[in-house]
Amino acid sequence: NLPVKGKVAWKAPSNIALVKYWGKRPVQMPANPSISFTLDTCATTTSVAFEKNNSNTGFSFDLFFEGKPKDDFKPKIQTFLERIEKYLPFLKEYYFTIETSNSFPHSSGIASSASGMAALSLCLMDIEKQLDHALDEASFYAKASHLARLGSGSACRSIKGSLVQWGGHNNIPNSSDVYGIEYPFEVNPVFRTYCDTILLVHKGQKQVSSTVGHQLMHGHPYAENRFQQAFDNLDKLKPILASGDLEEFIKLVESEALTLHAMMMTSMPYFILMKPDTLEIINKIWEYRETTKIPVCFTLDAGANVHLLYPEAEKEKVRDFIKNTLAKHCENGQYIHDQVGQGAIKI
Ligand code: PMV
To answer: Domain spans of the chain?
Structure first.
């Protein structure tokens, strides 16, 4: 049995997809496989205090974000708890105090759903572990990733490992639609320390949420080809990741980013999440790469911000380029230097 009360805490990172997840089937199953770099600096820290609750009628919890009560996040957490209750039957027997904070600036336009859902899932699994002492490490992380997926699809890639793959693929052993796995093939050391500077182009609310975007892939004229392309790109990535062929890496990653946005522009209704400065930055990245031969490239999430990816060896030069050339296209000149991390940690 669980102790009457206790407290657990985890820090989980954000992630950036190289092959994008866009389109899903119920419940939170991906229409295509994806793979991401785990980030390091951009992370959410969450603690969950639990105390035996005698009423046992519904979920009972309070939520604090950066030290203050945050009632407008509660419906999302409520839905999440409803979804995962069948996997964690103790949930209604406890009152939870959830305290969460992000390492990245508040409303910076960086989505915290991946890191946030990953950190919360790990906390709940940690409580589950106190109930099931036999739970081995692999099952612990697989189940945490499974739960995180039910909170936010891409959150399942924010649990463990520096390169995480999610979505069943015939050529990737142990791959699953249900949870993310550490990429099982050879990875060239250059990718273990890869840098990602997030250029904050637009910090406001997105006009279209990723939930709506995923839905618009149903009946989308290019959906089937796009899903097939993602499967193929995972195959293509295998020798690239092993050899460290940056020229091929850049082609694949930039094409994935633009395809994601092409899907948005060709859905019905159609929409555009890029801003003029997103395109300015992309053009400057291409120009810089062309003239310096430094292998920088970009990727995009479902938003206007640009992720600038580059090898650690080029850090100094690229950071000068960011400061001198790209920063003026960022809202209030803001950007965040991050790099590939290892996954979540218990604190
Ligand atoms: O996890 P969601 O439902 O917010 O979807 C995220 C989708 C992208 O960030 C655009 C791509 C990805 O694979 O992370």
So the answer is: 1-347
